[in-house]
Amino acid sequence: MRFKISLFTSLSTGAEFYLAETYKLIGEIFDAETAQKVERTLPQRLNWALWVAHTPMDPPQVLGFKLGYELERDKFYSWMGGVIPTARNYGIASELIFAQHEWAKKQGYRSIRTKTTNQWKNMMILNLRNGFDVVGCEDREGQTRVILEKNLA
Q: Which residue pairs from 19-26 have beta carbons closer than 8 angstroms and sit at least 24 positions apart in sequence?
């Protein structure tokens, strides 16, 4: 499967289409409430960045995304990501992770943190395969979340 990855770090005109498509994809993968929350809170996040995997055709089809923001001056938070079911197992998620980590290094971040639940086992496995370590757990609204972190240095 051929795809391109584009990076957006502001609410510029070029980003509008990809942001709208990403919010739709978040609604499909997670739920409408999560999509609305992301849309509402993204502009408030410090140094946010969105990577979008999409087809090279016009208009492009969004196949997947990776979204994050600055957690601390030297720590980037990988907030969420996903790939449409028909585009899974083509390496898209791995390429999105690679793009995010390379960009974060260039921006001076020393580590990346993410959180996941047992519901998203494939994401947990992918993170572990990409150099993340389990650094803790937290209970949020009765659900245990695993905290993972990767050193970028």
A: 19/50, 21/52, 21/62, 22/50, 22/52, 22/62, 22/65, 22/67, 24/62, 25/62, 25/64, 25/65, 25/82, 25/84, 26/65, 26/80, 26/82
Helix pair angle (121-129, 92-106), 10° resolution: 50
Torsion of CA 47, 146, 116, 53, to 10 degrees: 60
Tell me which amino acid residue 73 is.
R
**Tokens 């389990």 identify what position?**
134
Cα distance between residue 109 and residue 70, in whole Å: 9
Residue found by looking up tokens 């929350």 in the block: 37
Burial tier of 64 (Cβ tally within 10 Å: 0-12, 13-18, 19+): buried
Tell whether pTM > 0.85. Answer: yes
Q: Are 53 and 62 in contact (CB under 8 A)?
A: yes
> 42 to each of 22, 52, 81, how far by Cα in Å?
12, 15, 14
Give 46-64 pLDDT, tens digit per residue.
Answer: 999 999 999 999 889 999 9
